[in-house]
Structure formats: C-alpha cells, structure tokens
Amino acid sequence: MTTLATDLLATLAYGVVGLVLMAVGYLLVDVATPGRLHDLIWADRNRNAALLLASNLVGVGVIVTTAIVVSHDDFVDGLVSSAAYGLLGLLLMAGSFLLLDLVTPGRLGEILVDPEPHPAVWVSAVVHLATGAVIAAAIS
User: Fold this and answer.
1) pTM
2) Which residues have a Cβ under 8 Å from the Cβ of 49 and sit 6 or more positions away?
3) How far apart are CA 63 and CA 133, in angstroms?
4) How would DSSP label each residue in 51-65?
5) Domain segments of the chain: what residues?
6) Is residue 108 predicted with pLDDT exceeding 90?
C-alpha cells in the first residue's frame, strides 16, 4: 500500500507541474493575441485562437511527458526536469511566434484572432508542435 500511496503522490506532483506549465502557456498565448483569449475561444468561438492554444498545450504536454519518462524513477529529477524543460519549451514557442511574426506579412496576433479561418494559424500551430517535439527529442 505504501507504493501505491507514493505513486499517487508522485503522479499528483507531476500533474501539478504540468497544469502550472499549461497555465503559463495559456497566459503566453493570451498575451500574444489581441483581446482576451477566454472571450475569443469560449464566447466568440474563434477557431483560430482555439487551435493556437491547443497546439501550445499539446507541445507542453509532449515536453513534460518526455521529461517524466526519461527521469528513470528519480522523482526529484523528474519534477525538476519537467518544470525546467517545460519552461524552456514555452520560451522557445513564444520566441518562434515572435520570429514567425517578423518574417510574415501583417501582425500574426491579429491574423490569429480573425473570426475567419486563416492558414497562418495552422503554420503557427505546427511550429508549436514541432518545437515541443524537438525539445522532447533533445531530452531523451
């Protein structure tokens, strides 16, 4: 029973780290897009904003999952590496957003919240996913 309790507590700790990182990702996407992300997605049903946020969350999830898997049952190392690599991933995703905004026409934030679907959203989403995958591969 001790092992189950220990495993449940470790899972809870990893879950909290993952949720905190996803909350930070949400805030970063909210800052990058004009308007309130909450209103854009839940009130206005903006698919562009939803896709951008979803790709950010999946990218963070891939990074955190990989950090947990490669921690080889070292709980403290797993928590620290999950948090550190997750934050690095979020910074790189934010940087990739800014870089993509610099090299493309218009303001990417405004394009991404347009009520009409826009192909630039798919490009930005794939950049988030690819960034998460690259960091995950670097961890392992």
Assistant:
1) 0.88
2) 29, 33, 37, 40, 41, 112, 113
3) 7
4) HHHHHHHHHHHHHHH
5) 2-139
6) no
Which residue carries 């405004």 as its tokens?
A: 110
Cα separation of 94 and 88, whole Å? Answer: 10
- pLDDT tens-digit profile of 4-44? 988 899 899 999 999 999 999 999 989 988 889 999 999 99
Q: Which DSSP letter does residue 46 get?
A: -
N residues, the chain: 140
Q: Which amino acid is at 71?
A: S
DSSP string, 80-136: HHHHHHHHHHHHHHHHHHHHHHHHSSS-HHHHHT-SS--HHHHHHHHHHHHHHHHHH
**Residue 129 token pair:** 């996913």
Sequence-separated (6 or more) residues with CB below 8 Å from residue 139? 63, 66, 67, 70, 81, 85
CA-wise closest residue to 129 among 85, 84, 96: 96
Spell 113-122 as b/e; 16+ CB within 10 A means b.
beeeebebbe
